[in-house]
Amino acid sequence: MPLLLEGWLDSERDRILATLVDWLRIPSISAQPDHAGDVRRSAEFTAALLTDAGLEHATVLETPGGGLPSVYADHLHAGPDAPTILVYGHHDVQPVDPLDEWTSPPFEPAVVDGEVRARGAIDDKGQVLFQVEAVRGLLSVGDGGLPVNLKFLVEGEEEVGSPNFEALLDAEQQRLACDVVVVSDTDMWAADVPSVCVGMRGLIAYGVEVRTAAADLHSGLFGGAVPNPAHLVARMVAALHDEDRRVTLPGFYDAVRPLSDAEEASLRSIPVDEAAWQAMAGVGRLEGEAGRSLLERIWTRPTCDVTGMSAGYAGAGVKTIVPAHGRFTATFRLVPDQQPDAVGAAFEGWVRSQVPDGVDVEITRMGGVAPALTPVDHPAMAALCHSVERVWGKAPLFTRIGGSGPEEALGRVLDAAVLYLGVALPEDRFHAPNERMVLDQFWKGLLAAAELWTELGAAGS
Amino acid sequence: MPLLLEGWLDSERDRILATLVDWLRIPSISAQPDHAGDVRRSAEFTAALLTDAGLEHATVLETPGGGLPSVYADHLHAGPDAPTILVYGHHDVQPVDPLDEWTSPPFEPAVVDGEVRARGAIDDKGQVLFQVEAVRGLLSVGDGGLPVNLKFLVEGEEEVGSPNFEALLDAEQQRLACDVVVVSDTDMWAADVPSVCVGMRGLIAYGVEVRTAAADLHSGLFGGAVPNPAHLVARMVAALHDEDRRVTLPGFYDAVRPLSDAEEASLRSIPVDEAAWQAMAGVGRLEGEAGRSLLERIWTRPTCDVTGMSAGYAGAGVKTIVPAHGRFTATFRLVPDQQPDAVGAAFEGWVRSQVPDGVDVEITRMGGVAPALTPVDHPAMAALCHSVERVWGKAPLFTRIGGSGPEEALGRVLDAAVLYLGVALPEDRFHAPNERMVLDQFWKGLLAAAELWTELGAAGS
What we know:
The structure is a homodimer of 461-residue chains. Chain A is of the alpha+beta class and 461 residues long. Chain A is 34% helix and 22% strand. The first copy, chain A, contains 14 helices and 18 strands. Chain A has helices at 6-10, 13-24, 36-53, 121-140, 165-171, 173-176, 229-239, 261-268, 274-281, 294-300, 340-354, 379-392, 407-413, 439-459, and strands at 56-61, 70-75, 84-90, 110-112, 115-117, 149-155, 180-183, 195-200, 202-211, 217-218, 303-312, 321-322, 325-334, 360-369, 372-373, 397-401, 417-420, 436-438. In chain A, strands 1-2-6-3-7-17 form a six-stranded mixed β-sheet, sandwiched between helices. Chain A has a four-stranded antiparallel β-sheet with strand order 11-13-9-14, covered by helices on one side. The first copy, chain A, has a three-stranded antiparallel β-sheet with strand order 4-5-18. In chain A, helix 2 runs antiparallel to helix 4 (121-140), helix 4 crosses helix 14 (439-459) and helix 12 crosses helix 14 (439-459). The longest helix of chain A has 21 residues, at 439-459. At the A-B interface, strand 9, strand 10, helix 7, helix 10 and strand 11 of A face strand 9, strand 10, helix 7, helix 10 and strand 11 of B. Strand 11 (303-312) of chain A pairs antiparallel with strand 11 of chain B.
């Protein structure tokens, strides 16, 4: 059976690419306040794009809390028996540092060698655009209608951790109501090994600062008789893992749901090349929780990483002080059924137990995202797998993402199953210089989106 | 018996203070390259001061290695039977940060409430000046001669760790030859508890940098499967001490010479108020090597303090990375008979044993100073104690200094006993904002210096 949009697409490629290039020229960097105007311009571009493709009610959504704008649009003519699908993506991008490592300017898109190279090419403008163009395609072929009720939500603050996203979902719950969310912001195992993501890890982060003295002290005159916050921070950070690199936090693993036999089998089916993965990571060794495979370590096991640590003077030369304070930031990646609040409470209690009397400690919680996991036996998952198989020619593997995002909130607040239709490749340099999108994956994503809506529509709500 | 210079001093105080104020106006900050010209100006001021006081051959000594200049002068007319004394001090000063904590500008000396407040007032221009003016006084009274052959060496790089000082001593060994060194750069236990220092701890410092990855990695996508240098640095720093806060380095305590009964008794004779010391340190608790007193911890026991440590991003908010590298600086304070080279070799070997394959480590040694200890039964020590007793009205206690300086090299290269005639008080805010010198101590130091030369001259070489 031919793919629905194959014929239509043949004459549209140049126009679609030109649109993408225009969009990518907008430096919508959400992390940098001086680009706030560009993020707004990108939101307006997105709204116009959605309207031009045939969607209705395109609206720039102001974010509760005064954040950067998201964009909404819909096409709700499939009738009450058809399911309602919400496509999620984002139009903001990462900063471009280090600029001198780019081979072409990040906001002057280069279309070469079957790739588009620009900041935002794959993360996430390209992945939003293939969904939008699939809508235009379906409205242009056959009976000119959509098989599902479709909504788009294109966020403007994803790259800064979606600080106001849950508030936006709460405020717009009625407008955003849906049966299934399709996230278009993830990757595949490889171009010739199609896969669909079924979950992401949760995240909770803490800043811990200890203060032992009013000011730095001379290490000769006071050293040996006063507390040293570098030692205290080091003892705490070192104590977060045991010899087997398991997290020592009391009760940390209690809520971890064991993998089902199907999940174990699914993990084993993935062709892992550890040497290649290590080379991609650019590390000289792999290490992690004892007795766990690479994929378990990055996908299905919870972890703790200290992302920053400092005390005293660590520049060139030596400053002979006992520092007055030290700090570290600990992040925990969570898996089902761990809850950020429970892990957070355990961490806060543990830190306080480590700090002796006479030393001040300040603990700052920074956000919290629960893990997200879509059951592989959800009916919508079958539709997703069929669509991917039809386009890539192989049944997809099930993968997960070790990272964390607003997907858990989407599923929870909107009470909907979350599917991931993502076409990025691990080598696409997310967040790095020379970010790229492989065009073959992009066109396949467009075709797969149309297949997916159609199959979901046929299945009913 | 009246003090030699008491009468002379009465009419000299205003002139001496005016000289001190002029010298303190020169911001001779050796740590800051843009003050190199000021350090040179201070050296020229010092040379003029020495000449004006009656010393001869005043010379700005260029430092081997292109460092900042020291100053030499002498007065060698006491004959071959009189001993030769070398006075050591320094004319460079510490940086002034944080500037906003000064109650008067650091280089506009304020003479108020019986104190001089300025950067360098006590560390060390004031302490050099009382020695210089004692020379002028002795040349002005009695027979107008000096009872000893006297040399001055006033360093210009003490506050940056005397990087070229030993080379200078080697190069000028003949010119600097002496029987006794008198260091004028230390403190007393209290204004009403006179004391003389008998030793300083040695010091060796190391920078350690580990690199685990080519670049920072996404903590969600890679965390749990790659080495985290923050964890590795923390494990190393934590492992440097055991539960009893003893240094774990193999063999670290092997060379530590036990205290003699006399030294034990001397330590016990010092009236320690731990609460007052803790308040002065500005810390909420005291801690250190188990089973050791406060004075042992800061004077007679070797220690390890990590003076700086960093990995990843420790600013506001969270950056979800596994850092690519981390580092720390470890300093060891050494006591007789520990040797910097032996401790250094043990540390380097230990660090390499802690770093797993596949992680790069770079170890940088930063200087090394052996501990210095003057026997309390040295004849010159008796002269020093008598002089202090005559001026302060009480026999001095023996103290040590936990810090480290060029004194060990002075004694070793010049093969001379090292005495410490210092009048600073622990509350004089060495290296801190609002550094001060108490004038009563300053005048007493001047009187004591004259007594000391005279007693050493009477004793013969």
